[in-house]
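Catalogue entry: protein

Sequence with per-residue tokens
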Amino acid sequence: MFKRVIVGGTFDVLHKGHERVMGCAFSIGQSVTIGLSTDEFANRFRAKTVMGYEKRKSAVEGFAKTFKKEYRIVPIDDSYGISTTDPEAGCIVVSEETLLRAEEINMIRFKKGLEKMVIIVVPLVLADDGRPISGGRIHSGEITPDGKRV
């Protein structure tokens, strides 16, 4: 069990993949820090505007509360958030898509004299059609947040 586990993301349209990553974090951590992209950061590289920060935060809180463990949600305005500066963080949980970012975070931590975090990689969650569940596919009306075809 880790003292503190970190996860991060935009969490636009909370879906089964997000739930799997956060669920893993809660299962191995005494406390979980969830970095949630600010509106400005979330929309910086996207063609489609994401749901507002407060709505996304509310959805994440609703899910996090089900674990009855300590957690905090912090706004992040870059790809790293507090993951490169938090000395208490012992683990980061990522999806296959964000593994390289976690490795980059550990290199930055090492250069700052902080311990590297254990990286836990959660496999992508597939929809009924065998392709990964994603916010883009949900927004386009292709699948539901549970991965069912529409």
